[in-house]
């Protein structure tokens, strides 16, 4: 070569074996669809979506290895061999001896909340997640955000914005008493902060603090491999460790974990909870029978558990996790060329648009993130989702709106689904909407369900 290559390009670590056609639509058609859906992207029909970045939950492409495993489903009601294979991999990769399968992650959240939370309890955590918080509240608890302040600043480039503020946590323990705190809830990366990880150093410090006061520490490990990858890339002393090794060390500091297998494990359905606490395990194993199914299937078919077991093996492979994060990084860099305001650093699973800066002329009461998600869909058929005022919901005691500092649109990348060309189309669409941003007038909410309103709320455009 006559030209010296400074940096080599990378490509996806897979090749396409099967394709799923997607429908091309006109702007006029999408305007009609958006209006019928009440300008809520969750209420759109998937067949009317061109590039679906609503979520990475259950929307991933399984590998040929996983699909082959579906043919090996042992559909026995009790004691399926797939259950034991999955349990073995939970022990091997997460280091947790006790395991209970559930049909998805929020079922595990529900069971843990029912077991551990009493009315009047407080659950500190590194920023809320929607389903986690509602289960904690329904059990009679109150979530308390103890994340570092930098997490609420979209453009702050702190490498570990998912860290817990130790002073905030200790102040809460001293204020309400350790007996009023059933566990500290730690997620990584933190979804609502823009997919931001915590550091291993912070985790060790949180572990030491909770141990000092006799408080349990639980982990939402739904996207834990992404957190492990960021630790590998950003934290001194971990650059030569594998993602699998870092994942296992992370989990060693927790009393237990809950997981939505629809993310890291790259399956279409599934979840589980795992713990080193035998008492919690016995209660969970009993409770899962009431809500989900027998403790050896938890609402899942044997073939689903086989795909999950194989997904655990694949999720820690360096080429899989690095290509996933690089795809998000590519998107972020392309958007920055158009000066699109984003949450920084880029997340592990999604790009988050800063709707407050994107639409500074809209007050938060006009739902800027919801409005922006709707306008992007109308422009190109790209579906993202709101993570702001609508997702934050109302205070269950006062009924007042919660006003989060972050008002975001999340564009989430399903694993192994879209190509760089799809990203380019999405970037160009967002740039087009940004050019015409002053014409966006906002929305008003005309229907609001009691719980998790972002899934079903309906809106009308402000005239």
For the structure shown, list the relevant keywords.
alpha/beta; Aspartate Aminotransferase, domain 1; Aspartate Aminotransferase, domain 2; 2 domains; 5-stranded mixed beta sheet; 16 helices; tyrosine phenol-lyase activity; pyridoxal phosphate; Tyrosine phenol-lyase
Could you explain how this protein is built, in words?
Belongs to the beta-eliminating lyase family. The strands form 5 sheets. The chain has a 5-stranded mixed β-sheet, sandwiched between helices. The protein has a 3-stranded antiparallel β-sheet with strand order 9-12-11. A two-stranded parallel sheet has the order 1-10. The chain is α/β, with parallel strands linked by helices. It has helices at 27-36, 64-70, 81-94, 105-116, 130-138, 166-176, 200-213, 224-234, 243-252, 278-291, 302-315, 318-336, 355-358, 368-380, 389-392, 420-435, and strands at 51-52, 98-102, 122-125, 142-145, 183-187, 216-220, 256-260, 271-275, 350-354, 382-383, 385-387, 408-412, 443-447, 458-461. Helix 3 packs parallel to helix 11 (302-315). It folds into 2 domains: 27-56 and 318-461, Aspartate Aminotransferase, domain 1; 64-315, Aspartate Aminotransferase, domain 2. The chain has 16 helices and 14 strands. 39% of the residues lie in helices and 13% in strands.
């Amino acid at each position: 070569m006559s030209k010296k290559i400074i940096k080599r390009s990378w490509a996806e670590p897979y090749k396409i074996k099967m394709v799923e056609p997607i429908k091309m639509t006109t702007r006029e058609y999408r305007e009609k669809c958006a209006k019928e859906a009440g300008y809520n992207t969750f209420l759109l029909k998937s067949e009317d979506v061109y590039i679906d970045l609503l979520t990475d939950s259950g929307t991933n492409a399984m590998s040929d290895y996983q699909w082959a495993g579906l043919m090996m489903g042992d559909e026995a009601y009790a004691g399926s061999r797939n259950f034991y294979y999955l349990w073995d991999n939970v022990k091997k990769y997460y280091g947790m001896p006790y395991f209970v399968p559930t049909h998805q992650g929020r079922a595990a959240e529900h069971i843990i909340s029912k077991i551990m939370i009493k009315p009047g309890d407080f659950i500190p955590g590194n920023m809320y997640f929607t389903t986690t918080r509602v289960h904690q509240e329904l059990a009679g608890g109150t979530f308390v955000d103890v994340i570092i302040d930098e997490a609420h600043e979209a453009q702050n480039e702190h490498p570990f914005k998912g860290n817990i503020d130790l002073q905030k946590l200790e102040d809460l323990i001293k204020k309400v008493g350790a007996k009023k705190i059933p566990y500290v809830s730690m997620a990584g990366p933190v979804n609502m902060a823009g997919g931001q990880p915590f550091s291993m150093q912070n985790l060790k410090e949180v572990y030491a603090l909770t141990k000092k006061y006799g408080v349990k520490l639980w982990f939402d490990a739904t996207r834990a491999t992404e957190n492990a990858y960021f630790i590998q890339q950003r934290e001194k002393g971990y650059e030569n460790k594998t993602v699998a090794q870092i994942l296992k060390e992370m989990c060693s500091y927790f009393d237990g974990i809950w997981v939505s297998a629809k993310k890291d494990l790259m399956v279409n359905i599934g979840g589980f909870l795992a713990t080193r606490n035998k008492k919690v395990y016995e209660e969970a194993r009993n409770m899962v029978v009431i809500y989900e199914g027998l403790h050896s299937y938890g609402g899942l078919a044997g073939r689903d558990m086989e795909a999950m077991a194989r997904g655990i093996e694949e999720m820690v492979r360096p080429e899989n996790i690095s290509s996933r994060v690089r795809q998000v990084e590519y998107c972020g860099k392309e958007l920055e060329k158009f000066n699109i305001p984003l949450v920084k650093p880029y997340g592990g699973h999604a790009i988050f648009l800063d709707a407050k800066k994107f639409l500074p002329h809209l007050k938060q009461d006009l739902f800027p993130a919801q409005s922006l998600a709707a306008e992007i869909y109308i422009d190109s058929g790209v579906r993202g989702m709101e993570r702001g005022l609508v997702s934050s919901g109302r205070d269950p005691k006062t009924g007042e709106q919660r006003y989060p500092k972050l008002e975001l649109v999340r564009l989430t990348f399903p694993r192994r689904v879209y190509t760089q060309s799809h990203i380019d189309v999405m970037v160009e669409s967002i740039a087009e909407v940004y050019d015409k941003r002053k014409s966006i007038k906002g929305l008003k909410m005309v229907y609001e369900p009691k719980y998790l309103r972002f899934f079903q709320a309906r809106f009308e455009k402000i005239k």
